[in-house]
Design goal:
Helix content is 39%, strand content 15%. With 136 residues, it is an alpha/beta fold. Strands 1-2-3-4-5 form a five-stranded mixed sheet. Helix 3 links the parallel strand 2 (55-57) and strand 3 (69-73).
Length: 136
């Protein structure tokens, strides 16, 4: 197993980062992007595809746009937690007094078209766990 890390904070460096992972011998990857990079989702997916890197992502949006698989907190729950914090603060609570909360539900999404393009067989157990399977 090869552990390689590659990072890019600049849009034009994403391809270089993806190639660096492949050159280092990586056979798959996990891609996490900062919120400000959401506008470049398609490019991030294209870079992983060009490197033939089966990648997992932290958000289902990647899978809907062509990424292979995602595993991350259920977004609706995440927003509900944030709304609860805002509500408490607006009612006078001190932010330092609020408990730290973490998401309790996580979603798996799989893109079968991408799996086929990468010549990967997705186990039935993964498909059964997925909340969404994209075929086109």
């Amino acid at each position: 197993m090869v552990l390689a890390a590659s990072s890019s904070h600049r849009r034009h460096k994403c391809a270089e980062a993806a190639r660096g992972l492949r050159t280092a011998g990586a056979h798959d990857g996990s891609i996490y992007r900062p919120p400000r990079a959401v506008a470049h989702t398609a490019e991030v997916i294209a870079f992983a595809a060009s490197a033939r890197l089966p990648a997992s992502y932290d958000s289902g949006g990647f899978v809907r746009e062509g990424g292979l698989v995602s595993y991350g907190p259920r977004q609706v729950e995440h927003y509900a937690i944030a709304a609860g914090y805002v509500d408490s603060i607006l009612k006078g609570a001190k932010p330092a007094d609020l408990p730290v909360q973490q998401p309790m539900s996580f979603d798996v999404l799989v893109n079968m078209k991408t799996a086929k393009a990468l010549r990967l067989a997705v186990p039935q157990s993964v498909l059964q766990r997925a909340v969404e399977v994209v075929y086109e």
